[in-house]
Design brief:
The protein has three domains: 68 residues, Arc Repressor Mutant, subunit A (Orthogonal Bundle), CATH 1.10.10; 82 residues, 2-Layer Sandwich (Alpha-Beta Plaits); 70 residues, Alpha-Beta Plaits, CATH 3.30.70. Helices cover 42% and strands 22% of the residues. It has eight helices and eight strands, in the order ααααββαββαββαβαβ. The chain is globular. The relative contact order is 0.17. It comes from Paenibacillus harenae. Pfam families: TACO1_YebC_N, Transcrip_reg. Keywords: Cytoplasm, DNA-binding, Transcription, Transcription regulation.
C-alpha cells in the first residue's frame, strides 16, 4: 500500500511554482469548510480536517485567518463540490475533485483536459468503485511498532502502519482521522508530515513509456485547472 506520501507531497508542491496555487486552493477549501458550519475547528470537524492538512503544507496563518474571517463575515461567495471520474491512456483511472462557482465552466474545462490528452470522462461511479477513501497520517520520530502500540492502547482501529523512508505512515478509515491524530498527540507527537483524506487505488497500473508521457501531460493539465482541488489516479508514476 505504500505510496511514499512525503515524496508525492514534495513533488506536488514544487510543480506549479505550485506553492501559491496550493495556498489558493487551501484558502478556498478553508472558506467553504468554515462556512459550512461554525467557523471554529473544535465544533466544525470539516474545518478541523482541512486545517490539519494545511499545516503539513505550511500554509501561512494569514491565508488561513483571511479565509475564516471571510466566512465569518457572511460572504456570499458560493461553491459547489463536484467529482468527475474518467479514464486516461490504456484504461488509467482518474478522479477529479473540484470546488467551483461556475459549474458549466468547470465541466467544460475538465472534459477538455481529458479528451484533448487521450482520455475520456466517465459517468458517476465508473471509476470510484476501484478506490478506497482513506485517511493517511504521517509522522517521524517513532517506529511503526511504537505507533501501532500507541493506537492499539488507544483502541483506534487502522488499516495499516508502515515505515516509508524517514516517516511512519498510518492508513485508516476517514472517520478515524481525528482519533489517530489525538492518540498520537497524546503520545507526544507534536507535528505530522502528512495529514490527508485521499482516495487510494485498490490496484496500481504501470503504463508503457509513451502512454505514461501522455498520461502525465493530461494530469498536468487537469491539476492546473483553477477549480480543481484534488486529483487521484491509479498510475504508478516514475520517481
Amino acid at each position: 500500500m505504500g505510496r511514499k506520501w512525503n515524496n508525492i507531497k514534495e513533488k506536488k508542491a514544487s510543480k506549479d511554482g505550485q506553492t501559491s496555487r496550493i495556498y489558493a486552493r487551501f484558502g478556498r477549501e478553508i472558506y467553504v469548510a468554515a462556512k459550512s458550519g461554525e467557523p471554529d475547528p473544535e465544533s466544525n470537524r470539516a474545518l478541523k480536517v482541512v486545517l490539519e492538512r494545511a499545516k503539513t503544507y505550511n500554509v501561512p496563518k494569514a491565508i488561513i485567518d483571511r479565509a475564516v474571517e471571510k466566512a465569518k463575515g457572511g460572504a456570499e461567495e458560493n461553491y459547489d463540490e463536484l467529482r468527475y471520474e474518467g479514464f486516461g491512456p490504456n484504461g488509467a483511472m482518474v478522479i477529479v475533485d473540484a470546488l467551483t462557482n461556475n459549474v458549466n465552466r468547470t465541466a467544460s474545462e475538465v472534459r477538455a483536459a481529458f479528451t484533448k490528452n487521450g482520455g475520456s470522462l466517465g459517468v458517476s461511479g465508473s471509476v470510484a468503485y476501484m478506490f478506497d477513501a482513506t485517511a493517511v497520517i504521517g509522522l517521524s520520530g517513532k517506529t511503526a511498532d511504537e505507533v501501532f502500540e500507541v493506537l492499539v492502547e488507544a483502541e483506534v482501529d487502522v488499516r495499516d502502519v508502515m515505515e516509508e523512508e524517514d516517516s511512519v505512515i498510518v492508513y485508516a478509515d476517514p472517520e478515524q482521522f481525528h482519533a489517530v491524530q489525538e492518540a498520537l498527540k497524546n503520545a507526544g507527537v507534536t507535528e505530522f508530515t502528512v495529514a490527508e483524506l485521499t482516495m487510494l487505488a485498490q490496484n496500481d497500473l504501470t503504463l508503457p513509456a509513451d502512454a505514461q508521457a501522455q498520461f502525465e501531460k493530461m494530469l498536468d493539465v487537469i491539476e492546473n485547472l483553477e477549480d480543481v482541488q484534488q486529483v487521484y489516479h491509479n498510475v504508478e508514476l516514475e520517481e
